[in-house]
Design goal:
Number of helices: 7
Helix content: 40-55%
Structural class: alpha+beta
Strand content: 15-25%
Radius of gyration: 58 Å
Order of helices and strands: HEEEEEEEEEEEEHHHHHH
Number of strands: 12
CATH class of one domain: Mainly Beta
Largest sheet: 6 strands, antiparallel
Length: 321
C-alpha cells in the first residue's frame, strides 16, 4: 500500500512539473492604454503571446467583434518576432463603446497543442474599462447655434490662381507668336500649273516631232509610217474613247464609219492606212510625195476632228422702261 501511494505521488508530481513547464514555455498577456474613455472614443488593446515552437503549436485566441457592449473597430495583423525556437506574437485592437458604464474586457484563451502530451489553454487577464458621457450643466439654458462667420482674406489667398493665369497667358502668347512666325514657311508654295494639253495639241506636237526625225529620208519608211499610225491610234483613243490600239486597218475604218464624229473624215484615215499597209505588208516603197501626203492627211484629220466649243450667249438686261 505504501509503495502504491508513493508511486501515485511520484506520477502526480511529474504531471504537475510537466504542466508547470508548459505554462512557463507559453505565456500570454493583454494590456490597455486607457482605463476610461468618452463615449465614441477609442482605446488600444495590446495582446501578446510567447511560445516555443519546438514544443508544439499555438492557436490564436478567438476574439469576437463585440463583447460586453464594447466593439472592436480595427484589428492589426499579427506581428511575429522570432528568437531561435521562441516566437513572440503581437496584435493591436482598437475598441470603443457607445453606452456609458463600467464594462469588462474579458480574458482570451489561447490553445496550445504540444508535440507530445495533452493540449491545454492559457488565458490573458481581464480588466474593466469605464465609458463616460459628457457632463451637461442643466442649470444653464440652451445656447443658440452660431451662424457662419466671415473669414477675412488677402491677395495671398489667390496667389496660386494669379501665377497660374500669368503662366497661361504666356503660353497663349508664345503659341500665337510661334504659329504667326512659321505660318509663311509652313504654307506650301503655290506653283501655277500649266494648262493641260488637249488631245489635238498632243497629236500635232508628236507629228511635228516625227517630221523632225526625217526617218523616210534616211531609208526608214516603215518605221516612219508605223509611228505615224500609232500617233493617230493614241489620238483616237484619247479624243473619242474608242479602243483601236490592237485593231487592224479595216477594223479602225469600220469603227470610224459608225462613229458620229469620225464618219465624215473616214477618207483621210483610209488614205493614211493604205500608204502604211503598202509599206508594211506589200513591202512597197512609197514615194516621197506619199510620205508627205500621209503626214498632211494626219494633220488634217486631227484638225478636222477638233471639238467645237459652243459658248453660251451672255444675257443682257433689258433697259428699264
Amino acid at each position: 500500500m505504501a509503495k502504491v501511494l508513493k508511486y501515485s505521488l511520484g506520477v502526480l508530481c511529474f504531471l504537475l512539473a510537466a504542466l508547470h513547464l508548459h505554462a512557463q514555455n507559453t505565456k500570454v498577456g493583454a494590456r490597455i492604454d486607457a482605463a476610461q474613455i468618452m463615449v465614441g472614443d477609442q482605446a488600444r488593446l495590446f495582446i501578446e503571446a510567447k511560445h516555443n515552437t519546438a514544443e508544439g503549436q499555438l492557436q490564436w485566441a478567438t476574439i469576437p467583434d463585440t463583447f460586453n457592449k464594447l466593439e472592436i473597430v480595427e484589428r492589426s495583423k499579427i506581428d511575429t518576432i522570432k528568437n531561435g525556437s521562441e516566437v513572440t506574437y503581437k496584435q493591436r485592437l482598437l475598441i470603443t463603446g457607445f453606452d456609458s458604464g463600467l464594462f469588462l474586457v474579458p480574458s482570451f484563451a489561447f490553445s496550445v497543442l504540444p508535440a507530445s502530451g495533452t493540449p491545454y489553454t492559457v488565458q490573458t487577464d481581464s480588466f474593466p474599462i469605464l465609458v463616460q458621457t459628457v457632463a451637461v450643466d442643466t442649470t444653464k439654458g440652451f445656447i443658440d447655434i452660431k451662424g457662419i462667420r466671415q473669414v477675412k482674406g488677402s491677395w495671398l489667398d489667390y496667389l496660386v490662381y494669379i501665377i497660374g493665369g500669368i503662366i497661361f497667358l504666356i503660353l497663349v502668347v508664345a503659341v500665337v507668336w510661334y504659329f504667326a512666325k512659321n505660318k509663311k514657311a509652313a504654307m506650301p508654295a503655290i506653283v501655277p500649273q500649266a494648262p493641260k494639253e488637249t488631245p489635238q495639241e498632243k497629236a500635232l506636237r508628236l507629228l511635228s516631232a516625227l517630221e523632225q526625225k526625217k526617218l523616210w529620208e534616211n531609208n526608214q519608211p516603215k518605221e516612219y509610217l508605223t509611228e505615224l499610225v500609232d500617233i493617230l491610234r493614241y489620238y483616237i483613243e484619247e479624243r473619242f474613247s474608242v479602243d483601236v490600239m490592237e485593231c487592224t486597218s479595216d477594223e479602225i475604218l469600220y469603227k470610224a464609219a459608225v462613229h458620229k464624229e469620225m464618219s465624215a473624215h473616214r477618207l483621210l484615215l483610209s488614205n493614211i492606212l493604205s500608204i502604211a499597209d503598202l509599206a508594211k505588208f506589200a513591202k512597197a516603197q512609197p514615194t516621197p510625195q506619199e510620205h508627205l501626203s500621209a503626214m498632211e492627211y494626219a494633220r488634217q484629220f486631227v484638225a478636222a476632228t477638233k471639238p467645237i466649243i459652243v459658248e453660251e450667249p451672255t444675257q443682257t438686261q433689258s433697259p428699264q422702261s
